[in-house]
């Protein structure tokens, strides 16, 4: 078991490292190419940071290219710029024509935005490739035959029930069921169809905070409701010991008829480490077996859980739309715009104390956990990388000194007032920004292991 978990985390870490390496190089290249475009000298271009020593370095022309040993990002050192290198000796000399500080404000603004722009372009290009190679997959919300199966008890507390068909969130129709969880987290009310009537359910402002606080942020809010046809039996389960097999259809538990898979939980949860009588159909013949319930309140069987399984069994439809080169351009632009909007909305939740969104802030462990832990799936890898690219762009635009957004703010003030900020102010702001970033990074990573996010 420990070896299995270790191999899972090894796969997750490998995917995260490759993804971040690509995105860091792309981001820094945005600063590099715009700096060179405007005639600035770039002294260093590094993947990862290199305090004291580097793993690799090679000087080509005026620039030293290298790989550092501290995987917390990367950097380009542009001559005459107040950055993390804090090269005060150079800054105390008169500005040279090839230095960043000698360039007009509009050029410096473009250089500062170069990384963010490259991250957005990268996400757009990845989405174009996904559109052409794998296509965009969706589960039409109106295709759910039996509505939803509620997976999280908080959904029950709010007012959702098994069999509900969620029609809209914040008066916006839900077209793709895959997008429902994020819509619910960001919304304030939802409309469901229940027993042929529409009902409005209020969503709590601190919905995301409650999910994270109770360690349930990795449990799906709701899934497609399916019939009790068994598609998986755990080798160490009571169901396996009792002789149950893939293809069996559960029809009753303790003589109570079962119509949907989610109803099984109602009867087995109270019987932890006890036995229940399970009746099931196999090849048209009914059998009954006493099955031991696990200490987690489970039989050890699963029904249709993936979109492909639900589609093949008629519980929901899986649509895959592939695009040609020219058609993929607007499709990718739409995806990038949607993901960018979602990231901004989530940031608002995080910075609003009432929502409890700050509890969901995670570090490298959380970032790794978004990848596939079972196999290296290139479609999944590039989908997650595109999302991280958008996230990196948004985070770098935050108006914090030491981030691109902080430099942009000072440059915009200069463009509006016509006066350059005092060099000392820039230096102090850079130091303050670095302290803020280190504190945020420490909080996020500690939250993964010791805080609200440790259930991830």
UniProtKB/TrEMBL annotation:
Keyword tRNA processing set for record: no
Cofactor(s) this protein requires: Zn(2+)
Residues of the Peptidase M50 domain: 16-440
Keyword Transmembrane annotated: yes
Transmembrane segments: 6-26, 109-136, 390-413, 425-446
Localization per Swiss-Prot or TrEMBL: Membrane
Membrane topology of the entry: Multi-pass membrane protein
EC number of the protein: 3.4.24.-
UniProt keyword terms in alphabetical order: Hydrolase, Membrane, Metal-binding, Metalloprotease, Protease, Transmembrane, Transmembrane helix, Zinc
GO molecular function ontology, one term from the record: metallopeptidase activity
Top-level division of the source organism's lineage: Bacteria
Principal subcellular localization: membrane
Family: Belongs to the peptidase M50B family.
Designated name of the protein: Zinc metalloprotease
């Amino acid at each position: 078991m420990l070896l299995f978990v270790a191999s899972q985390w090894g796969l997750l870490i490998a995917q995260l490292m490759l993804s971040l390496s690509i995105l860091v190089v792309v981001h820094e290249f945005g600063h590099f190419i715009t700096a060179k475009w405007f005639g600035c000298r770039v002294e260093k271009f590094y993947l990862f940071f290199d305090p004291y020593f580097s793993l690799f370095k090679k000087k080509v022309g005026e620039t030293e290219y290298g790989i550092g040993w501290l995987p917390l990002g990367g950097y380009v050192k542009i001559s005459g710029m107040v950055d993390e290198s804090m090269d005060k000796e150079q800054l105390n000399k008169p500005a040279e024509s090839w230095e960043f500080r000698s360039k007009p404000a509009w050029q410096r603004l473009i250089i500062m935005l170069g990384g963010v722009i490259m991250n957005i372009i990268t996400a757009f290009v990845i989405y174009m490739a996904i559109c052409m190679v794998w296509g965009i997959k969706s589960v039409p919300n109106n295709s759910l035959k039996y509505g939803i199966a509620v997976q999280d008890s908080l959904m029950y507390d709010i007012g959702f029930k098994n069999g509900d068909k969620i029609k809209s969130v914040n008066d916006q129709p839900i077209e793709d069921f895959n997008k429902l969880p994020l819509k619910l987290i960001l919304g304030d009310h939802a409309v469901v169809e229940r027993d042929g009537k529409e009902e409005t359910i209020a969503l709590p402002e601190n919905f995301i905070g409650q999910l994270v606080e109770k360690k349930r942020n990795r449990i799906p809010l709701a899934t497609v409701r399916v019939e009790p046809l068994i598609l998986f039996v755990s080798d160490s389960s009571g169901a396996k010991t009792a002789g149950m097999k893939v293809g069996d259809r559960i029809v009753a538990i303790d003589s109570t008829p079962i119509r949907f898979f989610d109803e099984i939980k109602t009867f087995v949860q109270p019987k932890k480490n006890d036995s229940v009588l399970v009746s099931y159909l196999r090849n048209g013949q009914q059998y009954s077996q006493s099955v031991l319930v696990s200490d987690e309140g489970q039989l050890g069987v699963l029904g249709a859980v993936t979109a492909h399984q639900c589609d093949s069994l008629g519980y929901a439809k899986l649509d895959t739309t592939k695009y040609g080169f020219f058609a993929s351009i607007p499709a990718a632009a739409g995806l990038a715009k949607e993901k960018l909007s979602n990231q901004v909305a989530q940031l608002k939740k995080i910075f609003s104390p009432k929502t409890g969104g700050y509890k969901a802030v995670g570090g490298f462990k959380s970032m790794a956990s978004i990848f596939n832990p079972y196999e290296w799936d290139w479609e999944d890898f590039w989908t997650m990388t595109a999302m991280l690219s958008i996230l990196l762009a948004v985070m770098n635009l935050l108006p914090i000194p030491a981030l691109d957004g902080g430099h942009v703010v000072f440059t915009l003030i200069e463009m509006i007032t016509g006066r350059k900020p005092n060099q000392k102010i820039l230096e102090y702001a850079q130091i303050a920004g670095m302290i803020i970033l280190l504190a945020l990074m420490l909080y996020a990573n500690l939250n993964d292991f010791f805080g609200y996010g440790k259930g991830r």
